[in-house]
Structure formats: structure tokens, C-alpha cells
């Protein structure tokens, strides 16, 4: 037995990555891939902290009604609505900042019912609905959940930080998250296999003329689509920095990732990789993030889809692999893409 009381660092290489061979000696083969999408601990990491989570059975959102019930507040009322109790339903549905969001996305035909249910019915009915009869063609339970979460966050920003958010920006954030959740279940749009849950990433470094500098890909083990996109950005930044490229335009076809890592609050993000990328961005270089359509990002996608399933090393390509040379040439010469929708 190599370690009696091992720490995380015992399973890491001096480079700061997991020691795959040591992990494979100790853990079953089916367990090892679970490590790879988790970023290794880093000396710059801050300590863990507590956060609240919603649990319908055992806890309540800490509204003023709930805080008063627990004896930690003497006001039951909403700070915006004179005399109205700040219950869960009030915050999430009836308070003006919430109402603005729901009035925009709830269809007129169901609006009366939506605003008349009690809290249990309201939550259960909405999180059970997979209808896409809304202007955004998203499953209603995803849209509803995203909006409820953002509405609770803007309430906390207002109460605890005196920050008021523009409703149109809040709504676009809700739609981004709902779209991201929806994409998690579309294997076609993700480098994460919907059946196995195993993810791969790929990326390409090119100069301003579009010529090849370097490419990379690797397995990241069990993951989700958002984490896979973040790993691709992270590894691409590391590769660029290590090769001395300090003026960089980062192109991604994932608007959610760009939104997350360009947010002013990245250093306090709940996602470890977002915080890690934020730290990378603080290095002395010039970075610009640009969203590009998926069709124009196909070389990176192709690299991700060609990772050998049993190889967990970081694969680098000094020359473009033969299966993407046509795609690169097409990008350089500016041939257009025609997107065909199935419906
Ligand atoms: Zn209110």
C-alpha cells in the first residue's frame, strides 16, 4: 500500500495534473475517469465556503417570512412592496422584479392559472412541464427553473448588495442557462457522450491569417457539456501562454461559457474552472473573447471527437491531422456554410 493517509497532492504530478498511473494502481478502471474533469487543487485556491441550496422537503428559501419564523428578523415584509409579506411565492412570482420576467415569458392563455396557484402547486406544475409552447421553444421546466433561480439571485443582490439588475439582462441570462441545460441533453452539440457521460475536448491555435500553430485534445472523463467547454478554454489558454502567445483572440461556439468567464464576478463563481480561468486571465496578456457559430469551429470539434477512448494524456498536434485539413483550408479561404434546420 503506497499511502496510509494520502492527501490530494500524493495523486498529483509536479506539473499539477492528476497522476493517471498512480490512480489506476489504486482505483478500479471504472472510477479513474471520474477524476479527470475535476481540476486538481492549486496553491492559489481559496478555502471552501458554505452556500444555500433549495430543498423542497427540508428547507425554505430565507425570505423575510422564513427569517422571522426562525427569529432572525423582525420584519415579515418585502422591502419593495409596502405591507406585503415576503413569502417564497411573493419573491419568486409576485414581486415586481419577478413579475416583469414572468409577464414576458408566460403565455397569455395560461397566465391566469400561473398567477393563481399556491406555492406547492405552482412549483410542481411548472417543474413538471416539458412543453415548448413559448417564444423561445425551450422546455418549460428548464426555462422556469432558470428564471426562478435568477429571480432569487437578483433579490439577494438587491437586499444584500444594493444592486439592481436590468430585467432584460436578467431575462437573457435566464435564457442562456435554460439553453445550456437543454444542450446538455443533445449529444450532437456536445463533446460529452450522452450515453456514457464521458467527455472529450479539443482546441486549435492559429495565427491571424488562420494558419495552423498547434492543436490539442484529450479525454476529461465523466463530465457535462459546460465543464467540457470550460476545460477546452482552460487548456487552450495554458497552451497559448506556455508557447509565448500573449495577444489572443479566444473563439468559442458556447455563448454560455463566454458569458460566464467575462462576467465581472468570475472570481466568486461557484464553478471551480470559471475561477481558475479568471486567474489565468489576470496574467499579463491581452485576451479577447468572441463567440463564433458552431459551423466555423469545426476543426476544434473534430479534434474533440477523435480522441482515442483509452488515452487520457494531453494530445498535441504540431501539424494539423489529416481529418481536419479540408476544414482548415475552408476557413482560411472563407467558404461559407449553409445551415440546414430539420424543422
Ligand atoms: Zn415585493
From TrEMBL:
Coiled coil: none annotated. Residues 191-306 form the RNase H type-1 domain. It holds the Pfam family RVT_3. This is RNase H type-1 domain-containing protein. PANTHER family: OS05G0353850 PROTEIN, POLYNUCLEOTIDYL TRANSFERASE, RIBONUCLEASE H-LIKE SUPERFAMILY PROTEIN. InterPro entries: RNase_H-like (IPR053151), RNase_H-like_dom_plant (IPR044730), RNaseH-like_sf (IPR012337), RNaseH_domain (IPR002156), RNaseH_sf (IPR036397). It comes from Hibiscus sabdariffa (roselle). It comes from the Eukaryota.
